Amino acid sequence: MTRHEVTVVDPEKQEVLVRDLNSSTEHWEHYDQLLFATGTKPVRPPLEGIGSPNIHDVRNLVSGSQLKQALAIQQPKTAVIVGGGYIGLEMAEALLLRGLKVSMVQRSAQVMATLDPDMGERIGQALREKGVDLHVSETVQGFEQKDGLAVAVTTDKQTLPADLIILGLGVKPNSELAKNAGIPLGPKESIKVNELQQTATPHVWAAGDCAQSFHLVSRRPVYVALGTVANKQGRIAGMNLGGRYATFPGVVGTAITKFMDTECARTGLSEREIRALGLQYTTGLIEGYTLPRYYPGSSPICVKVLAEKGSARLLGVQIVGGPGSAKRIDTAATALHAGFSLEDLLYLDLSYAPPFAGVWDPIVIAARMALREG
To answer: What is the DSSP letter of 286?
Structure first.
């Protein structure tokens, strides 16, 4: 039923109130089982001028298409990106390639806040080297307007003129409908589910970016809005709704992106997350090359490995480097799923030939460094 919106959920009666968006009529629909797959909504703080038509957020194909049309019609020369996360980085690359002058404002002291500061700073340096006017430790306070359009971003330190503004402030679960129905929520107001994707409310399920996950390293519920996780959760929910039995084991927080020729990836826990758990840890950080240094096409790579002190249990890995760097994170993600220690990682039988990797993979070298530390 396209062009229909559920506005109310009544779990006691097992009914939903459905509005026909074409005719504005409403009717109640009975359900045997109900699945929430409502995804996310962008974070848009109530700042002055934020409703201007040349302020865009990019969260799906429709919003991306609208931004592309705006670029073609309005022909902007300058852009300000608010937020230095995954969307911010990708938008900075796209706008630079279109010839725009790009500025970026980040509230924290570094871009890519999911990385540790020493790794995030490498991304910040790459942004500056490619021409992005980067402003960290600045908070956006509002948007100046003229003739109905935003013409500048006002921060707590300055005013940045802009023809186009992109919000990359992240997303939050689209869980208001579930909350209003009394369905219990979890981290960051995601819908609380078990390993079957069931909520605590009978006959109600949730999957995807609106639902919580379980972190296999911290052993705690988390909220992770990624398409990889959403697809897996959707599969589990669908199998259980269809009469089979399946469980979703959890996540390790793997993510990857790039800006121009600088790649970055992370999995597991960051230093900040480890400290929040009260764990003692060791660190191994190395700077090397994706291939033997003498081989054509070799790129610099920095790998950081985090492990629990004493047990040497692998806790997290972060990578920043040139082409061929970031996809190595999958080895670390697999190791985290398997509960590897540094010793386990050290003796993996990884492939070697000069066109593909060195004798010792950079992740393994970083693991050796962490093992030496503790």
So the answer is: E
Phi, psi for 372 (deg, rounded to 5): -65, -30
- Say if residues 187 and 225 touch (Cβ distance below 8 Å): no
Backbone angles phi, psi at 29, to 5 degrees: -125, 130
Residue of 214, 331, 190, 215 whose CA lies nearest to 265: 331
pLDDT at 194 over 90: yes
27-67: pLDDT as tens digits: 999 999 999 999 999 999 999 999 999 999 988 889 999 99
Same domain membership, residue 264 and residue 210: no
260 and 326 part of one domain: yes
Residue 96 falls inside a structural domain: yes
| CA 18 to mean position of chain CA atoms | 32
**Is residue 301 included in any domain, yes or no?**
yes
Angstrom distance (rounded) from CA 319 to CA 257: 11
Q: Which residues of 6-22 are buried (b: 16+ CB within 10 A; e: fewer)?
A: eeebebeebbbebbeee
Pairing of strands 101-106, 133-136: parallel
**Per the domain annotation, does 67 fall within a domain?**
yes
Cα–Cα distance for residue pair 166/160, rounded to 1 Å: 13
Q: Give the total number of structural domains in the chain.
A: 3
Domain holding 284, by residue range, is: 255-373
Domain presence at residue 248: no
Structure tokens given for 165: 């503004």
pTM across the whole model = 0.92
- CATH number reported for the structural domain that contains residue 10 in this entry: 3.50.50.60
Q: For the chain, what percent of residues have pLDDT higher than 90?
A: 96
Nearest alpha-carbon partner for 318 in 237, 255, 242: 255
Binned at pLDDT 50, 70 and 90, residue 373 comes out as confident
Give the tokens for residue 252: 């390790």
Distance CA 234, CA 31 (A): 19
